[in-house]
Amino acid sequence: xxxxxxxxxxxxxxxxxxxxxxxxxxxxxxxxxxxxxxxxxxxxxxxxxxxxxxxxxxxxxxxxxxxxxxxxxxxxxxxxxxxxxxxxxxxxxxxxxxxxxxxxxxxxxxxxxxxxxxxxxxxxxxxxxxxxxxxxxxxxxxxxxxxxxxxxxxxxxxxxxxxxxxxxxxxxxxxxxxxxxxxxxxxxxxxxxxxxxxxxxxxxxxxxxxxxxxxxxxxxxxxxxxxxxxxxxxxxxxxxxxxxxxxxxxxxxxxxxxxxxxxxxxxxxxx
Length: 271
Known about the structure:
The protein is mainly alpha-helical. Helices cover 76% and strands 0% of the residues. It has eight helices and no strands. Helix 3 (84-110) packs antiparallel against helix 4 and helix 4 (129-150) runs antiparallel to helix 5. The protein starts with 22 loop residues before the first helix and ends with a helix.
């Protein structure tokens, strides 16, 4: 679970009580690891010709893993700590916030930023699309990283199911999006600059989430966790599932189910 194996029975530890590696630094490193999976995916896409059907299948699998983490780690803990009404409000708020930001970016060329085909516009086709795609990729990654940092606030270790979900889903995201960037004529400098920058930003987001909320009431942390969960689920439905369905068709649901089941099994073993 998000707060560790016995998170419901332990008091939250203040940020200045770390022993050994500072917990704020640990939060940043976990976020960097999760974001680094995007770079791994981009490297594979740039140097290896991966069939688009394989990319889509892995995307569907990653979507299932993330959905499991949202349901059994993020929302369950948010509802338990902050109450269902607060968790529900945060969840819907996160979804609407992501929707609004994504709609704004879509108007500037970032709508198909996770697509591996030729849907992404080049800079010549739509000026400013490169920046919009980069900002959109950052928008997708920040909520995932924040919850990694929040997961350390109880004084436990990082949530294995959430970390696995972030890493597993980020590899195909980076792979698919980087393949689309390459097809649209963007340079290696741009592609790896974007993903490296987002990996660093992911680490900073996890670190900031931990530091900013280290002394915050548990109920506030729960609401923010729900906000992140709502944004993540909306991102899955809006960007990951469409890319997966385009290439895997009716198999998308089955592959997503397998991803969900494996993540659920990991969560159960860690409980």
